[in-house]
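Propose amino acids for all 327 sites.
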């Protein structure tokens, strides 16, 4: 692929740059590639006006459907500031000859770390005890120690993982290091799995897992995979972790399972609607540990994200696009 544009002619628009770079990173390397305009946020009705004369668009969560693509004949490249690219209509982009690229694997370490941070919040209750200590509960204790919740270790427990991509595989390795038995539901062949990870069916995974962690993509097959029926297959007192996609889970069903005690805890960094409504049923459950979609947001991960996104644009301009998802 070749481009007849030089850097002074290329107009680059970033539609929703604030989450990637709230001010602690720099767009300077992108500005070396063309005339750059960065918007913190863009509403759907602002898209066409803002990208009307742009050849390159970068976006994260701003929807870019077929209707908008059809009205942008000058557009040549869409860069997604994320690994998932469901915000872009790929078929429409391909019909119009637009290259779409994503940023794979930038958040592997950060998301795996967050999955275990949530697990530790549940089994060790660090925040709870730090707060109780500030309130004087330990100072008032008659013993040298103080606890008022069950505490447990991970060693000997069974970790079930749905999806063994980059993040799922990293979570599996960490679980093994903690002495856990690890089972996985994956499309990979058993002989290709790392030592110590056993492949099983989805129903089998539900039945053996003390902790079940979701690391699969969202598609027609996985949407709502955690529901009333599948929750009944899980062990009583098990823990469910979701750092993948909110709509993998029927949140009302999970709230009900927490309320009746079948599910010990639900830890999630994602929700079906983001930001969530204040009346989401999970917020009423004390054993729902919800964080606001921050697993990917470490400075290190965002630095890798921005660096790769800029390299993607540079590679496209040089006629050798990389990380293309619109093939």
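Proposal:
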């Amino acid at each position: 692929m070749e481009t007849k544009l030089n850097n002074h002619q290329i107009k680059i628009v970033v539609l929703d740059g604030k989450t990637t770079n709230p001010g602690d990173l720099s767009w300077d390397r992108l500005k070396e590639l063309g005339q750059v305009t960065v918007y913190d946020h863009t509403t759907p009705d602002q898209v066409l006006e803002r990208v009307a004369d742009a050849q390159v668009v970068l976006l994260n969560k701003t929807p870019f459907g077929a209707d908008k693509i059809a009205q942008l004949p000058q557009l040549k490249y869409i860069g997604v500031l994320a690994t998932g690219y469901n915000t872009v209509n790929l078929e429409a982009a391909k019909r119009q000859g637009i290259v779409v690229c994503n940023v794979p694997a930038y958040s592997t370490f950060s998301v795996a770390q967050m999955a275990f941070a949530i697990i530790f919040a549940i089994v060790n209750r660090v925040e709870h005890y730090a707060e109780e200590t500030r309130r004087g509960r330990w100072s008032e204790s008659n013993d040298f120690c103080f606890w008022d919740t069950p505490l447990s270790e991970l060693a000997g427990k069974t970790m079930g993982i749905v999806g063994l991509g980059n993040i799922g595989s990293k979570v599996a390795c960490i679980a093994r290091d903690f002495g856990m038995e690890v089972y996985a539901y994956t499309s990979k062949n058993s002989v290709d799995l790392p030592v110590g990870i056993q492949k099983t069916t989805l129903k089998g995974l539900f039945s053996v897992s003390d902790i079940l962690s979701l690391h699969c993509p969202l598609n027609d097959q996985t949407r709502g995979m955690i529901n009333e029926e599948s929750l009944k297959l899980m062990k009583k007192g098990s823990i469910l972790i979701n750092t993948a996609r909110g709509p993998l889970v029927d949140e009302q069903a999970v709230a009900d399972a927490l309320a009746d005690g079948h599910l010990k805890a639900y830890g999630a960094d994602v929700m079906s609607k983001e930001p969530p409504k204040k009346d989401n049923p999970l917020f009423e459950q004390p054993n729902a540990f919800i964080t606001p979609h921050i697993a990917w947001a470490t400075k290190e991960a965002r630095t890798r994200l921005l660096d790769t996104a800029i390299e993607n644009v540079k590679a496209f301009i040089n006629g050798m696009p990389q990380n293309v998802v619109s093939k």
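The radius of gyration is 22 Å. The chain has a mean pLDDT of 96.
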